[in-house]
From TrEMBL:
Protein name as it appears in the record: Granule-bound starch synthase 1, chloroplastic/amyloplastic
Domain Starch synthase catalytic, first and last residues per copy: 85-335
Keyword terms of this UniProt record: Chloroplast, Glycosyltransferase, Plastid, Starch biosynthesis, Transferase, Transit peptide
GO MF term (any one): alpha-1,4-glucan glucosyltransferase (UDP-glucose donor) activity
Taxonomic placement: Eukaryota, Viridiplantae, Streptophyta, Embryophyta, Tracheophyta
GO terms of biological process kind: starch biosynthetic process
């Protein structure tokens, strides 16, 4: 996330692991000093006042290979001017893929910064601590790090992240339950932004033989969603105003305009920003949560204070500038500001039918027609449906919120379930919607299953075993489900919105159902009918040459980050941060990028 070629927002739960040795050093003596974990102080640091971050390092008792810094201090160091220095900041970051695409393919130096929600097995303690003023308190964060697939992954350690989430990244990042936020989310994400601004300056990362030392100040930050909207503000108010980061720029990437970070206007004072920023946050809101009327709107400030705004598909860019309904009342700001749409790539390593560890029959485009029925049987057996490879099977995977239209699907099922068809629904989210999908088995024992769990192996089995993947979203900024499905030769049936329009072409690689109402309080009967009729239309192609051709068309596409990362590269180069150069297309700038560098 970077999503976004970008620090793409997803759960990091796959990386949750047991406590590692790095925590054992907690009682060691703290010293306000510089050693190989940090570069020497320069004049600009002296400009730091007490409101600026303080940086220090915890020394260790042993000289063993406890940190990547200590290990890499003897490796060859060639500081390389090629490419840009990119820092993706987000509340969530998927395993490697998003920045991986940009970093691996184009030879830029790439870091992601995200919270440390669990004791990640592969995240090593850098021993670098920074003191940051958050609200009216001084908080100390500690940086953890690992280097994977050519990307420096930095994790910000603080109790506001770890002690709240404890690895439950599928459900507890933003609040104790879906739909309920933590009271201190503004402080949590303020802390993330402040820490992210320090990371390129203070972390001496030497895992890549082509780059050494801190990233420095000539960087481009890619801020993702409302959680990172304070970053461009702090960059200006705390750094540029003191002669630091003078060349640095910020690209703001919106993954979902439905979540904007709207809070009481009086909360502006806890953000520690000068009054001149108030106008950028000022927002009149008819909605009552948390209070009706004048509010601060983090995303609005992110749009206004960044150097460029990007979103995750061209069609979504059009939608969110079209009017208040799809632009969720920020359409006017975006029209004024401009927004570029670049469709997301997908993680083609994690989602590869030829190597997928969660499916027993591996396949590719040449073997899909033989493998599909076997994968379907395995899926049917797994969820307890009658095992019959000749029954067309429809899958659904997604968060159970109005956005994803699982309620529209539930209403449509009676209208098509009498066909020769089975359906498997996987998702977590709102409790009422979880109950709704769990009812499916009772209502249609031989036809439908609903699994209300966050279950990665089952997500892979559905993607491989289903014939069709249904994506009935009211809105969908990009959508990954349909990309994953197509890579597995599973034909998508999608609502005509956002990235689903850009990536699924009717009759070629899927089926379009038309645009649905974005009114989330009700299920529109027209949309229900569209789901049922399009599913029946899709079922009629099952087993025909037209279907075989669609499967082949799906699998023939390059859905990786390769194409999108070139588009991202151009947007970021246009910011003209000094020293930025294009990467070398097609060349392996970083040979280590292919393999994960083992942690010591
Ligand atoms: N119960 C479950 N068990 C296991 N895995 C599950 C799961 N529920 C979901 N997943 C997985 O989570 C991912 C969700 O992808 P989406 O495109 O639906 O993203 P989401 O809407 O959450 O994010 C937002 O950001 C992304 C990235 O920019 C945009 O594509 C999207 O439109 C926007 O709404 C998929 O990899 C899926 O397999
Ligand atoms: O990957 C899914 C989405 O994850 C993020 O959205 C989260 C959002 O940023 C949080 O603020 C929170 O949203 C809650 C909202 O604040 C609250 O008022 C209420 O409406 O419930 C919302 C849902 O709980 O959680 C969201 C995740 O569920 C990310 O910002 C999006 O881009 C992703 O689409």
């Amino acid at each position: 996330m970077a999503s976004a070629a970008a620090a793409h927002l997803l759960s990091t739960s796959a990386h949750v692991a047991e406590i590692k040795g790095s925590l054992a050093q907690i009682d060691l003596k703290m010293q306000l000093t510089m050693y190989n974990g940090l570069r020497p102080l320069n004049k600009l640091d002296m400009l730091h006042t007490k409101s600026c971050p303080k940086v220090f390092v915890k020394h260790r008792r042993t000289n063993g290979p406890r940190t990547q810094n200590s290990r890499s201090s003897c490796s060859p160091k060639i500081t390389c001017g090629l490419g840009m220095k990119l820092v993706f900041v987000s509340a969530e970051v998927a395993p490697w893929s998003k920045t991986g695409g940009l970093g691996d393919a184009n030879g830029h130096r790439v870091m992601t910064v995200s919270p440390r929600y669990d004791q990640y097995r592969d995240g090593w303690d850098t021993s670098v601590l920074v003191e940051l003023r958050v609200g009216d308190r001084i908080e100390t964060v500690r940086f953890f790090h690992c280097y994977k697939r050519g990307v420096d992954r930095v994790f910000v350690d603080h109790p506001m992240f770890l002690e709240k989430v404890w690895g439950k990244t599928g459900s507890k990042i933003y609040g104790p339950i879906a739909g309920q936020d933590y009271d201190d989310n503004q402080l949590r994400f303020s802390l993330l932004c402040l820490a992210a601004l320090e990371a390129p300056r203070v972390l001496n990362l030497n895992n890549n033989p082509y780059y050494s030392g801190p990233y420095g100040e000539d960087v481009v930050f890619i801020a993702n969603d409302w959680h990172t909207a304070l970053l461009p503000c702090y960059l200006k108010s705390m750094y540029k105003s003191r002669g630091m980061y003078l060349n640095a720029k910020v690209a703001f990437c919106v993954h979902n305009i439905a979540y904007q970070g709207r809070f009481a206007f009086s909360d502006f004072s806890m953000l520690n920003l000068p009054d001149q920023f108030k106008g950028s946050f000022d927002f009149i809101d008819g909605y009552y949560k948390p209070v009706k009327g004048r509010k601060i709107n983090w995303m609005k400030a992110g749009f206004l204070e960044s150097d460029v705004v990007v979103t995750v598909s061209p069609y979504y860019a059009k939608e969110i500038t079209s009017g208040p309904a799809k632009g969720v009342e920020l359409d006017n700001i975006l029209r004024m500001r401009g927004v570029k749409g670049i469709v997301n790539g997908m993680d083609v390593q994690e989602w590869n039918p030829a190597t997928d560890k969660y499916i027993s029959v591996k396949y590719d485009a040449t073997t899909v027609m033989d493998a599909k029925p076997l994968s379907k049987e395995a899926l049917q057996a797994e969820v307890g449906l009658p095992v019959d490879p000749n029954v067309p099977l429809i899958g659904f995977i997604g968060r159970l919120e109005e956005q994803k239209g699982s309620d529209i699907l539930a209403a449509a099922i009676p209208q098509f379930i009498k066909e020769n068809v089975q359906i498997v629904v996987l998702g977590t989210g709102k409790k009422a919607m979880e109950k709704q999908i769990e009812q499916l088995e009772i209502l249609y024992p031989d036809k439908a299953r609903g699994v209300a769990k966050f279950n990665v192996p089952l997500a892979h089995m559905i993607t491989a075993g289903a014939d069709f993947m249904l994506v009935p979203s009211r809105f969908e900024p990009c959508g990954l489900i349909q990309l994953h499905a197509m890579r597995y030769g599973t034909v998508p049936i999608v609502a005509s919105t956002g990235g689903l329009v850009d990536t699924v072409k009717e009759g070629h690689n899927g089926f379009q159902m038309g645009a649905f109402s974005v009114e989330c309080d009700a299920v529109d009967p027209t949309d229900v009918a569209a789901v049922a009729t399009t599913i029946k239309r899709a079922l009629r192609t099952y087993g025909t040459p037209a279907m075989t051709e669609m499967i082949q068309n799906c699998m023939a596409q390059d859905l990786s980050w390769k194409g999108p990362s070139k588009l991202w590269e151009q947007v970021l180069l246009d910011l003209e941060v000094s020293g930025s150069e294009p990467g070398i297309d097609g060349e392996e700038i970083n040979p280590l990028a292919k393999e994960n560098v083992p942690t010591p």
